[in-house]
Amino acid sequence: MALITQEIGGYGITSSTCPYWQIRRCNRDPFMFLHRTAPPPTSTCKYWMNGNCKFGDQCRSLHSWSDVEATFVGMQHVFLDDNPRPTRLVWWTPPPRGFFKLNCDGAFTVYGNKGAAGGVLRDWKGEFILGFSDALIECSSALEAELWAIKIGMQTVVARGYRNLIVESDSLKAIQIINAHKGDFLRSSIQHMTRMVDRICWNHVYRETNSVADGFAKHGLSLSQDQSIRVFDSAPDFIESRLYGDRIGKIYCR
């Protein structure tokens, strides 16, 4: 990692303290090393963020988020010198107090044209309320599976009396169809259910932050199509690690 330098009097001043100054034997002033105690690191190591810092504990930058970066992380793009593509930091966030967040996802396999739907409902504390998995009898595309997941999720939570909802899907096309003025049977059914709630918000999210719903959808692929929708009132073991990641605010790079 290159040293951070500042041009002063023709010398590149580094962020390291002069070892000779520390034992009072340096006769050069100005010098490339600091004649004072080096300040603690204030910026996060960009190589640590990318998972490939080779300096370990000897690195001059933080191997954690600084206070400032922790405040604004995820709200800006981070550009890495060795990665020309901008990296966006994303993570799942709980809904505001008084709302419930429904994450939905569809799964589709071309082999056998089999589709499945899954989703999870959580409160403002991020606590698990319910999850669902369903093997779809008729499904011809991944987009159709996404719409079925939203429809089944809405039916499930509305039937249980939840009226203030934030519904999220990692399918931008599905969200656009729901917000459109015209659509097919699935879109019309979803819009009909929105009249049964008090407040609702539709969000498109990245797939990394929709991992719990993805786990339930993939579980639906293992179910028989003649089975009815399976609703989980407690978190099953196969989804616990993903729930934990969301609960602690696990950060993903895109």
List keywords for this structure.
254 residues, elongated, alpha+beta, six-stranded mixed beta sheet, 8 helices, Nucleotidyltransferase, domain 5
Q: Tally the helices: what do you get?
A: 8
What are the low-pLDDT stretches, counting only 5+ consecutive residues below 50?
1-14, 66-81
Largest sheet: 6 strands, mixed
CATH structural class of the largest domain? Alpha Beta
Q: What is the CATH architecture annotation of the largest domain?
A: 2-Layer Sandwich
- The percent range for helix content is 25-40%
Strand content: 15-25%
The string of secondary-structure elements, in order, is EEHHHEEEEEHEHHEHEHE
> Reading side by side through the largest sheet, how are the strands ordered?
9-8-5-6-7-10
Count the beta strands.
Answer: 11
Organism: Glycine soja
Protein name: Putative ribonuclease H protein
Keywords: Metal-binding, Zinc, Zinc-finger
Pfam families: RVT_3, zf_CCCH_4
